[in-house]
Amino acid sequence: MKKVYPYLTMLELEMEFMGRDSIIHPLLLSDKGYTMLIDAGLPGQYEQLSDELKVAGTAPELLDAVLFTHQDLDHIGCLPELDAANRYATFYAYEEDAPYIRGERPLLKNNVVPWQSQLTNLPHGRIDRYLSHRQQFHIAGGVEVIHTPGHTSGHVCLLLRQERALIAGDIVFYIDDELVLPPVELTEDLPAAMHSLEQLLRYDFDTLICYHGGVCHDAQARLRKLLTTH
């Protein structure tokens, strides 16, 4: 785990992705006794996730909220265990992705990891409340939900206004010190995804916190360069 800001901790879970060993980064927001987990790793990583939360000073059964940026397997993998461990937390997702996360529809993608198509039971669990575009969480200096469709129709980013930082989910990856687009085969609607990236430039942030890759500084300039080259 790594403390990014006083109230934001970046957790570290191991994953094989795009043919290489990598780290994915669920996030823990903690402010005045309120704790929110953002995304939840792959199936089979619950023990790792629980250990990371405990090192960060909390535990699955103590969380107040769990928020999913979108429906992909590597973001909702530990949902069943979190759901079972904590019946009091509020589980959030954007409405378009909620049926997939609840298990009412099969996940849009069966290729996030090589072994996904072999799973007999895909992770699923409850969603208590839908997120909305421009919704505000009055924690950690203000957290704003930004609907960024494209990677999935219900993908969201989160703007940390006080820190001028953007939790990017999978709208962009940070690999080998470069911002890169997610693979086309993992993108539901590429034109919509590019439009969402362009819209992000309207927001005030200097830092991107990427699920794949971690913390990227000088983010506005890097994002503009990425859009120019594509």
Work out the number of β strands.
Answer: 17
Structural class: alpha+beta
Enumerate the spans where pLDDT stays under 50 for 5 or more consecutive residues: none
Q: What would the average pLDDT be, to the nearest integer? A: 95
Give the termini separation: 33 Å
Task: Compute the CA-based radius of gyration.
Answer: 16 Å
Helix content class: 10-25%
What is the approximate shape?
globular
Biggest sheet details: 7 strands, mixed
A few lines on this structure:
The protein contains six helices and 17 strands. It is an alpha+beta fold.
Search tags:
30% strand; alpha+beta; six-stranded mixed sheet; 20% helix; 6 helices; 230 residues; seven-stranded mixed sheet; globular
Give structural notes.
By secondary structure, this protein is α+β, with helices and mostly antiparallel strands. It is 20% helix and 30% strand. It contains 6 helices and 17 strands. The strands form 4 sheets. The chain has a 7-stranded mixed beta sheet with strand order 1-2-5-6-7-8-9, with no helix packed on it. It has a 6-stranded mixed beta sheet with strand order 10-11-12-13-16-17, with no helix packed on it. A two-stranded antiparallel ribbon has the order 3-4. A hairpin with a 2-residue loop joins strand 14 and strand 15. The mean pLDDT is 95.
